[in-house]
């Protein structure tokens, strides 16, 4: 299978005083994991002009203005801009039932799914919740979690419009 390259750029909103290198290294590790979107090779670029997807760590107030809601991260699916809520990045989401490392993996994969034109899907009780489910808002009581896309989510992307 020929993998398609997707170029992405990582940044941090001015005034957050956090390490861009640390944030970027975590993103690179997640998007390089073989469990992620196996149809694609994600390539980090220093040039935002070359990037198809832009991932930015943002202040919660900025996310409120851009996304028009509180407490979540979001993606502009038209421009493939991923806005990561700094509070969620640093503290996770208790309702997700994920440890911080796993929550970050889920969060990046969830928002990348949106950046590639994927939409939300519900999780049913007694299932593994797809990463397209909004874990941040909670999962059904008897469901299990994952930090990486399920096979059917990967297959779904084959049916969606390409982003490059």
Can you walk me through this structure?
This protein has 164 residues and is of the alpha/beta class. The protein has one domain: Collagenase (Catalytic Domain). It has 5 helices and 5 strands. It has a 5-stranded mixed beta sheet with strand order 2-1-3-5-4. β1, α1 and β2 form a beta-alpha-beta unit. The chain is globular, with a radius of gyration of 15 Å. The chain starts with a strand and ends in a 7-residue tail after the last helix.
Helix/strand layout:
Elements: E1 4-12, H1 20-32, E2 40-44, E3 53-58, H2 60-67, E4 74-76, E5 81-85, H3 86-91, H4 100-115, H5 151-157
Parallel strand pairs: 1-2, 1-3, 3-5
Antiparallel strand pairs: 4-5
Question: Could you name the key traits of this structure?
Answer:
Collagenase (Catalytic Domain); alpha/beta; 164 residues; globular
Could you spell the SSE succession in H and E letters? EHEEHEEHHH
Indicate the CATH architecture.
3-Layer(aba) Sandwich
Question: How far do the termini sit from each other?
Answer: 18 Å
Q: Using the coordinates above, name the CATH class.
A: Alpha Beta
State which percent range the strand residues make up.
15-25%
The beta-strand count equals: 5
Q: What fold name goes in the CATH topology slot?
A: Collagenase (Catalytic Domain)
**Sheet bearing the most strands, described?**
5 strands, mixed
Proportion in helices: 25-40%
Rg estimate, integer Å? 15 Å
């Amino acid at each position: 299978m020929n993998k398609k390259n997707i170029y992405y750029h990582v940044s941090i909103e001015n005034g957050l005083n956090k390490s861009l290198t640390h944030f970027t290294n975590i993103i690179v590790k997640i998007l390089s994991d073989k469990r992620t979107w196996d149809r694609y090779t994600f390539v980090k670029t220093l040039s935002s002009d070359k990037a198809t997807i832009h991932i930015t760590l943002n202040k919660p107030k900025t996310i409120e203005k851009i996304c028009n809601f509180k407490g979540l991260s979001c993606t502009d699916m038209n421009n493939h801009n991923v806005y990561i809520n700094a509070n969620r990045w640093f503290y996770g989401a208790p309702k997700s039932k994920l440890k911080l490392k796993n929550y970050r993996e889920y969060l990046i994969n969830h928002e990348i799914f949106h950046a590639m034109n994927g939409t939300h899907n519900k999780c049913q009780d007694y299932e593994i919740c797809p990463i397209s489910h909004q874990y941040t808002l909670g999962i059904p009581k008897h469901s299990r979690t994952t930090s990486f896309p399920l096979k059917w989510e990967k297959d779904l992307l084959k049916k969606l419009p390409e982003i490059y």
